Amino acid sequence: MSKFYIVRQNNSGGYWEIDEKIGLGHYLVFEAESGEHFEWRLEKFLDKTPNNWCSCCGERWSFCDSEDCELEGSVDDISLKDKWEKKHRVLGVHYLSGKVEVILFDSQTGERISTQEVQHD
After folding, report:
1. Which domain holds residue 25?
2. In total, how many domains does the chain have?
């Protein structure tokens, strides 16, 4: 049975790398068969994205052991609230089927603003 895993983007270099067309957001969720499969899918995706390292700030992504990244509950249970962010938060969800969804959250309330399917892997 598959599980969902989540990673958070760091504000490396003082900016966020966001590309809603490919499901690149402040947070990434991957559905995977195992922790190792999650790590492989994440690495494969990030290899296609720019600026994963900043010389002064370090890694753009908060990597964790797959056990620590495993979601408790489902994607539907996620709420992204951030008192420092004035706009919205973007979550890219990458399903095993290849479907990719982008979910926008209101940063102040943590509530979903919209969900859109953007592409297939």
Report:
1. 3-120
2. 1
Residue recorded with tokens 């994963």: 52
Neighbours of 95 (CB within 10 A): 19
| pTM of the complete model beyond 0.90 | no
Q: Are 64 and 42 in contact (CB under 8 A)?
A: no
Calculate the CA 35 to chain-centre distance.
16
Total Cβ atoms within 10 A of residue 28 = 24
* 90-114 tens-digit pLDDT: 989 999 999 999 998 888 888 888 8
Cα–Cα dist 88/98, whole Å = 25
DSSP code, position 98: S
CA gap 26, 43 in Å, rounded = 16
